[in-house]
Specification:
This protein has 292 residues and is an alpha+beta fold. It contains six helices and 19 strands. It has helices spanning 19-35, 54-58, 68-80, 164-172, 186-204, 255-263; strands at residues 5-12, 40-42, 83-85, 89-92, 98-105, 111-116, 122-123, 131-132, 144-148, 151-155, 177-179, 207-210, 214-216, 222-224, 228-230, 236-239, 246-253, 275-277, 289-291. Strands 1, 2, 3, 4, 5, 6 and 17 form a seven-stranded mixed beta sheet that branches. Strands 9-10-11-12-15-16 form a six-stranded mixed beta sheet, covered by helices on one side.
């Protein structure tokens, strides 16, 4: 029987460039989550390792089955009887490139599902060097919905949030909660973070849990923070600000998903097969786009 409520611990980190340091932080976060009665701990993107220098990452990144951070999360889940969403950590893929890899772990330490980030962060921000995640990472090839005691959940990572069709597909597959762990840059965080997350929640009628990185990291990067929990009506339930590491426990009433979707069922409407632009001339009373 699906549980009606979920007590979740939303974590914010300033991840280091070593597995050992990050395992130490997550150990403390898991203990705090368990002490506060949480049933699930949500971690941010690159919770396991944030190391952009090749010599640092190459010395540590291994295949998922051998990854020490994932193993530590499994041990902590079993120790505390706590579900853990690992956020993500880089692992070695089959072609030698890295995968930005997320793992959902049950309260016995078993792996329920995993997901590799589909949309890679290849952007050029004004005043900054181009950021090319695809230089070192291979993209994932599948969307993932996983079964939990609280219903189906959708897995995604950071830059995925800019691609609304992914969350529509996850919602239509039955997901009532979307994980969106992130390590957002400060400029894009200030401009887009909250509005994008609220939009994903509203359009899918689902809860969004976006655990984030915050602060100045050992590898020189700076991240925005403001981990958010958002309800299916678009309301911000928690904002963790800029402190890291920190944790907030939130109680989710999962019946809110059905209520939101019943009122505005746009999430379930099939997309048109074809949507083509129409050219319109001055004075023509026609829409800018037309269905074909």
């Amino acid at each position: 029987m699906t549980r009606a409520t979920l007590r979740v611990a939303l974590a914010q980190m300033c991840s280091a460039d070593s597995h050992a340091a990050n395992i130490e932080t997550v150990t403390l976060l898991a203990e705090q989550a368990a002490d506060e009665g949480a049933e699930l701990l949500a971690l941010p993107e690159v919770a396991g390792l944030m190391a952009r220098k090749p010599e640092v990452s190459e010395a540590q990144v291994v295949e998922a089955g051998d990854d020490p951070f994932i193993a530590a999360c499994r041990d902590l889940a079993a120790k505390h009887g706590l579900w853990i969403h690992s956020g993500s950590t880089p692992v070695r893929g089959p072609d030698g490139r890295y995968l930005n890899h997320s793992t959902l772990i049950d309260a016995e330490g078993g792996i329920v599902a995993d997901y590799d980030k589909i949309h890679l962060f290849d952007v050029t921000l004004e005043g900054q060097e181009p950021i090319g995640e695809s230089k070192r990472f291979a993209p994932g090839a599948r969307a993932v919905v996983a079964e939990t005691p609280w219903g189906l959940v959708g897995l995604s990572i950071c830059y995925d949030m800019r691609f609304a069709y992914l969350y529509r597909a996850l919602a239509q597959a039955g997901a009532v909660l979307m994980f969106i762990p992130a390590a957002f840059t400060v400029p894009t965080g200030r401009a887009h973070w909250e509005v994008l997350l609220r939009a994903r929640a509203i359009e899918s009628g689902a809860f969004v849990l976006a655990a984030a990185q915050a602060g100045l990291h050992a590898d020189g990067r700076e991240t925005y923070g403001h981990s958010l929990a958002v309800g299916p009506w678009g309301e911000v339930l928690a904002d963790l600000g800029e402190e890291a590491p920190t944790l907030r426990v939130i109680d989710l009433d999962l019946s809110a998903v059905a209520r939101a979707r019943a009122q505005i069922p746009a999430w379930g409407i099939a997309a048109p097969e074809r949507l083509e632009p129409m050219r319109v001339g001055p004075g023509l009373d026609k829409p800018a786009h037309g269905l074909r």
